Please model this.
Amino acid sequence: MKRFYFIATLLLFSAITFAQTDKGRFTVSGRSSIDFSYSNTRFKGGSVSSDTETGDTYNFNIAPAFGYFVFNDFAVTLQTAYAISDGNTYNQMSQFGIIPGAIYYIPTGSIVRPFAQVGGGYMNINTKVPLESGGKATHSFNGYTLAGGMGVAFFVKENIAIELSGQYATVKTSFSGDSSIKMNLDGFSGSIGFSLFF
Model:
């Protein structure tokens, strides 16, 4: 009899968990990371041409998002992203983006569910570059970003999941003062976050 109740409880919990990604439901999530990462930044155009590896850069990222499940396990999302970078490079950088996208939770029959996500949208980047005379000059770049990644969601409660993910992103921007000057960024990142389903 105890075994029956145990199995019934597991089945009920699983059914409640899987219902969280059904069509017509919503999700709110927040992911962040603090890490040291490798990236490759390229400036091209005008009188500028450089290709700089910044392996010891400190990064902080936060990316809140809102989603709506248009099909079972498949949601369209709207994400905002903010990031700052600093370290042993000659400049400091901050990024802000608005990124529509989509996420798909793979049905596995358990409380651990892999997912895949893609997105693309607007990106603004501000850099602070030291001046020879002292102080720093701020340069603004605007353009677009494309990103994709995979992760795993651990449903710790019936409507709460902890998510571990990794993604690759590319950013293409132009200098606001001279559109012939481009800044392109490519890199991998990892993050941890949580999602609420309702």
Notes: The CA atoms of residues 54 and 180 lie 23 Å apart. The chain is about 10% helix and 75% strand. The longest strand covers residues 136-157. The mean pLDDT is 82.
